[in-house]
Design goal:
Layout (H helix, E strand, L loop, with lengths): L1 E4 L5 E5 L2 E5 L20 E3 L5 H4 L2 H8 L2 E5 H9 L4 E4 L4 E4 L2 E7 L5 E3 L5 E3 L4 E7 L2 E5 L9 H7 L4 E5 L8 H11 L3 E5 L11 H7 L4 E2 L7 E3 L1
Parallel strand pairs: 3-4, 4-5, 5-6, 12-13, 13-14, 14-15
Antiparallel strand pairs: 1-2, 1-16, 2-3, 7-8, 8-11, 9-10, 11-12
């Protein structure tokens, strides 16, 4: 399985001949190296409805008829936009042809703002456990630190955890380091930082705080094999 990081919370997973994008915020993301015109995802997984996470989902999904998996209220809205969307909810899991998706809790908010300014309720924000090829990835989504991260770690043998460190909208580096201690992944990767002025962070400082797990600060576009 090959993982790559593309700025903000955008993660690409390539496994079993399939390409999966998580939270594909491309247009408007000054950090990303991806181009909507050239990306060909087989599936898109969404943690919540904020525009900087839904991003270019509709255009990408329509281009290759990619399946979109999202919290159910967000999936219902995306379905109304002509997308093949599957709605799931916290605690639920399903085995797709590209891997198994399970939604976990996250503590945040979740709404989508349309071009006309309408605000669409996006359901509960979530984290994602993705399993394929005997490996498990945890994308925490946008969240604060919460105690049940320990339960997520105990119930799952997590190979790589993507955790937000930006502060202001999510947990900051200190809380994120504590979260890694609860989750106990083999590898932790910081995400959701530096995109906007309020979330500027030094990921190397986060790395210094983490005990008991390897931290890989992934440069934009770099890959990690597991």
């Amino acid at each position: 399985m090959q993982l790559s990081y593309h700025g903000h919370s955008v993660v690409k997973i390539q496994t079993n001949g399939k390409t999966i994008l998580i939270d594909p915020f491309i247009n408007g993301n000054s950090l990303t190296d991806l181009d909507v015109d050239t990306e060909q995802p087989d599936a898109i997984l969404l943690t919540h409805a904020h525009n900087d996470h839904v991003g270019d989902t509709v255009e990408l999904a329509k281009k290759k008829n990619a399946k979109v998996v999202a919290p159910v209220e967000l999936a219902n809205y995306l379905g109304s936009q002509g997308v093949d969307a599957v709605g799931m909810n916290l605690g639920g899991s399903h085995e797709f042809d590209f891997g198994t998706v399970k939604y976990t809790k996250a503590f945040h908010s979740s709404s989508y703002t349309t071009e006309s300014g309408d605000v669409i309720y996006g359901g509960m924000p979530a984290g994602i456990l993705f399993t394929a090829e005997g490996k498990t990835i945890y994308h925490a989504g946008d969240t604060e630190l919460f105690g049940d991260m320990e339960l997520i770690g105990k119930r799952n043998d997590i190979d790589v955890a993507f955790v937000p460190i930006g502060d202001f909208f999510t947990m900051g580096p200190e809380d994120a380091a504590y979260a890694v201690d609860l989750i106990k992944p083999k590898v932790a990767v910081p995400i959701h930082y530096d995109t906007f002025p309020p979330i500027k962070q030094d990921p190397e400082e986060f790395k210094k705080m983490v005990k008991g797990a390897e931290v890989i600060v992934m440069e934009i576009g770099t890959t990690h094999e597991i």
